[in-house]
Amino acid sequence: MIRAENLRYVYKSSSGDKVALDDINFSIDDGEFVAIIGTNGSGKSTLAKQFNALLIPTDGKIFIDGLDTSDEKNLWHVREKVGMVFQNPDSEIVAAIVEDDVAFGLENLGIEPDKIRERVDLALDSVNMSDYKKFAPSKLSGGQKQRIAIAGVIAMNTKIIVFDEPTAMLDPMGRREILSLVKKLHTQGKTIIYITHFMEEATAAQRVFVMEGGRIILDETPREIFTNVKEMRRLGFDAPVAVELAERLRKKFKLPPKILTADELAEALK
Ligand SMILES: Nc1ncnc2c1ncn2[C@@H]1O[C@H](COP(=O)(O)OP(=O)(O)OP(=O)(O)O)[C@@H](O)[C@H]1O
Ligand SMILES: [Mg+2]
């Protein structure tokens, strides 16, 4: 379980202070899938970095399974529980061979080489990249690199995985692959925090946080959030395609309210 209490974060610099997170409160249960959306600069990445203590709150607290991230002696345990996947796959690759890259975190834990190999193989298999184990990451596509980065997190076996726009630099095919991998990790019991600019992706979550100006202004189901088209527009988001389409078709057809997905729309049109 993750709990944030009156969390505030301020970037301090000589040119002035910037309040990036302001009075954030939430709790996320084990196994939940939470998407975070918000306009540029609303504080999503700053929040992502609080989960594994890359940043420590300026005020307030965040607890991972009861562990206060700002307590230095918890740092190690917090990082054992929370894995991170970032936007730019290139900046996440650390080794010259795929399998070494996936093994990197484990080697730092001092695990036996046999065990490491086993975990790396399993992780590569689960992201469908076993065939590329001896490849140089530089030869891979963006989507493949991102899957390698995810394999690195899977190998660490953290119970929580935070994704900060992992598909932002990928083509549609790469995006689909990553999203289906994220869904699989969720069904396997991982707690997922998934930051995205793509509304379609956020509909896969059980819960959506909408951020604005460093605050979480909405915390509801994707259905509640995305079918409120007026509010979405006011906040500067596009509605998911199926929601937009249903909205237009309602002018000619009688359709049930709150259609969220293409499948639901197809069913309703029958
Ligand atoms: N290192 C930093 N120093 C000072 N201000 C920063 C720093 N990093 C981010 N900020 C500011 O903090 C605010 C929140 O930034 P953050 O990167 O968390 O937003 P974001 O929602 O992730 O945006 P994006 O959608 O562009 O990724 C922004 O106003 C940003 O300019
Ligand atoms: Mg960001």
Low-confidence stretches: none
Write down the secondary-structure element order: EEEHEEHEHHHHEHEHEEHHHH
Rough outline: globular
Please report which band the strand proportion falls in: under 5%, 5-15%, 15-25%, 25-35%, 35-45% or over 45%: 15-25%
**According to CATH, what is the topology of the largest domain?**
Rossmann fold
Can you describe this structure?
- There is one protein chain.
- The chain has 270 residues and is an alpha/beta fold.
- 40% of the residues lie in helices and 23% in strands.
- It is built from twelve helices and ten strands.
- The longest helix is centred in the middle third of the chain and has 16 residues.
- The chain is globular.
- The model has no long low-confidence stretch (mean pLDDT 94).
- Bound molecules: adenosine-5'-triphosphate and magnesium ion.
- The site of adenosine-5'-triphosphate has 12 residues, from strand 2 and helix 1.
